[in-house]
């Protein structure tokens, strides 16, 4: 498969990452569709206790996140050869390294990057989601940006989901690993 620019479409495992409200689900679904890969919504893999905690406005701890990351890791391992798109906040380096290890090879990350103002606006307009706006502050404080890591495509979220997805696909096709 190839993009309009003639580059080869990425066909490996991809994590769409970023803080709450950055558009992981919106972009992840489109990305999977355009790459022709299966899509997994990481939020649906949280233990019930994590969802209850977040719903009450309590931030997750590392201990809360490890079992969830390991479930995501299992799905990544399953899709490592054929390719898969999974959404996961993956806020810290240690979380991303855990996922890389689980994938067992080259794991690409699409990092959805946006200002606090835009994120606040998007989360404020969203309805029917367990994650309260009050948790955005700790999400941003916890985020360790992945810019200098291997296999990362950073995309500015101040664009339509379609445009963000196309930029991500372009970036994925040009990824190099050291
Ligand atoms: N590029 C965009 N332009 C305008 N609105 C967007 C864009 N991306 C997402 N949205 C909207 O912003 C809100 C947050 O998006 P979404 O739920 O996809 O983010 P998320 O990162 O998956 O959030 P969470 O991790 O909290 O589940 C939704 O209401 C969505 O419709
Ligand atoms: O790592 C975390 O704190 C959590 O995973 C959150 O990021 C949520 O899963 C998600 O973003 C839902 O809004």
From TrEMBL:
It is an enzyme of class 2 (transferase). Pathway: Carbohydrate acid metabolism. GO terms for molecular function: gluconokinase activity. It catalyses: D-gluconate + ATP = 6-phospho-D-gluconate + ADP + H(+). It comes from the Bacteria. The keyword Nucleotidyltransferase does not apply. Pfam families: AAA_33. Belongs to the gluconokinase GntK/GntV family. NCBIfam families: therm_gnt_kin (TIGR01313). This is Gluconokinase.
């Amino acid at each position: 498969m190839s993009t309009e620019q003639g580059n080869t479409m990425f066909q490996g495992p991809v994590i769409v990452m970023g803080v709450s409200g950055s558009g992981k689900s919106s972009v992840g679904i489109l990305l999977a569709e355009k790459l022709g890969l299966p899509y997994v919504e990481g939020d649906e893999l949280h233990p019930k206790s994590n969802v209850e905690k977040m719903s009450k406005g309590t931030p997750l701890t590392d201990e809360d996140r490890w079992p969830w990351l390991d479930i995501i890791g299992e799905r990544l391992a399953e899709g490592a050869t054929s390719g898969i798109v999974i959404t996961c906040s993956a806020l810290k380096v240690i979380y991303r390294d855990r996922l890389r290890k689980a994938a067992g090879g080259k794991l690409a990350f699409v990092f959805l990057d946006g200002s606090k103002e835009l994120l606040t606006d998007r989360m404020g307009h969203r309805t029917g989601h367990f994650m309260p706006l009050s948790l955005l502050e700790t999400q941003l404080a916890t985020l360790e940006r992945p810019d200098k890591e291997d296999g990362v495509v950073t995309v500015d979220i101040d664009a339509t989901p379609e445009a963000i997805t196309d930029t991500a696909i372009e970036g994925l096709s040009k990824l190099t690993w050291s």
